[in-house]
Design goal:
The protein is built from five helices and nine strands, in the order αβββαβββββααβα. With about 160 residues, the protein is an alpha+beta fold. The strands form two sheets. It has a six-stranded antiparallel sheet with strand order 1-2-3-9-8-5. A three-stranded antiparallel sheet has the order 4-6-7.
Length: about 160
């Protein structure tokens, strides 16, 4: 496979054709991941939630993020908002249950932060966690990377 890519790249170079090399999405080790492509970063009893680099890459340019109200209760696996891109609108599900204590208001003016910085400036909500035991239902970085590879191979 690698030799085929090398040959194709050399052939494209010789023919002066540009070749698009799609890299793998970034997966951070200290996060947990849902199979619906949300990430959660735990800090004590609080959690920061966003969509993964893999998800934003598949969505394309994000143009709108629907945010929940501060104080809203969210349940693991249930939708709390949506991300709208030039390609599609996708629900955002909570990877853990809890109460919304903060929303990323920057996304109202700059929804593209979800694309440019999905794990830093593009976070969506912060929660007060109800049950830390729910974390065992989520994937670690290695499991999530493998999940994405398997999912992409089906398409």
């Amino acid at each position: 496979m690698a030799s085929r890519m090398l040959w194709a790249s050399r052939a494209a170079s010789y023919l002066r054709i540009s070749v698009f090399h799609r890299g793998f999405a970034t997966v951070l080790k200290d996060l947990k991941y849902a199979d619906s492509h949300e990430w959660v970063k735990i800090n004590g009893n609080s959690a920061t939630v966003g969509i993964t680099d893999h998800a934003q890459d598949h969505l394309g340019d994000v143009v709108y993020v629907e945010l929940p109200e501060v104080g809203a209760a969210v349940k693991q696996g249930d939708s709390f908002g949506a991300v709208e891109s030039v390609k599609a609108t996708s629900d955002v599900n909570s990877p853990v249950s809890g109460k919304v204590v903060e929303v990323n208001k920057e996304l109202n003016n700059s929804p593209a932060l979800v694309n440019s910085s999905p794990y830093e400036n593009g976070w969506i909500i912060k929660l007060e966690i109800n049950d830390a035991g729910e974390l065992k239902n989520l994937m670690d970085s290695e499991e999530y990377s493998k999940f994405c590879e398997e999912e992409d191979s089906k398409h």
